[in-house]
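The records we work with from here on pair a chain with its fold. These numbers are not coordinates but entries in a learned vocabulary of local backbone shapes. To see the layout at work, look at the sequence and tokens printed below.

. . .
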Amino acid sequence: MKITLNSTSFLLPNNESWSILKKNNNINFSDYGNINSGLNAKNKAEIDVTLFFLPDLIDYFQLDKLDYRFETKKISNIIKLIEQKLKLKNKKFIVGLSEYFYNNIINFSKNISFSKKIKSYFLDELYKLSRKYNNFYIFDLDNIFSDHGYNNCFDQRNFYAFRCRLSTLGIKILSKNLEEIINRINFTNKKVLLLDCDNTIWGGVLAEDGMENIQIGQDGIGSAFLDFQKAIKKIKSSGVLIALVSKNDKSDVENVLKNHQSMILKKNDITAMKINWNEKSDNIKQLAKGLFLGLNSFVFWDDNPIEREKVRAQLKDIEVIEPSKDISDWPKQLLEFKGFSKFIITKEDKVKTKQYKNREKFIEAKHSSKNEINYLKSIKIKPKIIKINKSTLNRTLQLCQKTNQFNLRTKIYSMKDINKLNKKNICFLVHLKDNYGDHGIISFICLKIIEKKFLFIDTFLMSCRILGRHLESWILNEIKKLAIKNKLNFIIAEYIPTKRNQVAKDFILKSCFEKISKEKLNNYNIFFKKLKKENSNSEFYTLTKNSKIPNL
């Protein structure tokens, strides 16, 4: 990825510590100091990073003489330049900010320092922009430097020699954290936390100690396990699914979840459980299949090093946490784990556990019914087409970045891409309700009209948790109606195979689509030839307006 790095301070571009960020990215360092020029400059970078060190902007030796209105006006001018850049919507933009110069506990024991007031104003204005522009991210440098000690991260000798405020360690920490932010921009977060039970969510071994003697509560080490459960509940509220994978008797674990007075975690917090004496790797595979999620969506936390090594060896796509030897560190370690972190939490995230539990109930009831069609009619499925607008944009982005299975082309679109698609094409979302609850927005469709003849399905994706309702057939019928309305004779679908989206191809094959042979493809528009060239393993299918589609 191409990145431009602009800063008020010199950043020693040749320092070895930048290798962390340079490993996967092509970095261009702008001339330091001329921040206005850097913000106005046009470049081909996909991500612009601008770092502000307040001592470069205001005179820290004259803090007691500076005028607040004058200094905030300078900041306001910088904010205007940032917003001008954001309005272009042609790239992602990260701003980092630090106000550190020196600390004097006595001087600042009665009044907030002037520099902190300026930083607070700067941050407030930046966060206003972040709520307005989805391609904007804020990076509080002082938060990361304080963890390692300001004196270790800043180096006055570097400043006077090279005009670089940071030490080699400071640059290394900056590089590492920028890499983490950029990775989250480009790749989705983890979705499931897999937890052991004994000596993980409580102290002791349930089968040996009994429920009354496990360590969980307000005193001693039990309070650390209690806080660990609180941390688990906190990440669950952001949309992370919690699953138990434990070698225990299931009834004993369920009894603890239901009846132990000190347990923060309850059964309704747990999306899935595999509690038996089988190998954990086998149980995890079954969980992944049942949840319709790839193994790379899972994070495994177990106190037993042998179990951790087994999972690492047998399930290489799973991220295995190495817990601190000190249990009192666990709550902080979990909350600081960036694999679950996300920039925005949607309404759907907050009810994710409930949605997956409803899915489990739906599957059980469907399998036990004698007539599938009558059963589906009985649950009163109510799909609804809704528009993409400011209120639904974040959910659209989330669907694009997370949906891997029922996804014909698995194209990962940015916010900028979605806005562009929505302006020039037929785009819509699908919201679903039934007797099992409000499932929220579960599908994104984008259709392109090509030469007033073809309706090309650019995007057809759907959340796998609502599969089994034949909603995909209803959506396809809606697409067919749009083709007829626009007097288009052919619907064209491109299927780009991946390791995980076979279910999307199965749907195409069951829905009256006919595969377009290589010979016939040559007779089609050059648009499709270009697509074929871009994705050599693409398969193309066509559906005519006379084709009958199985209805919901």
The longest strand covers residues 437-450.
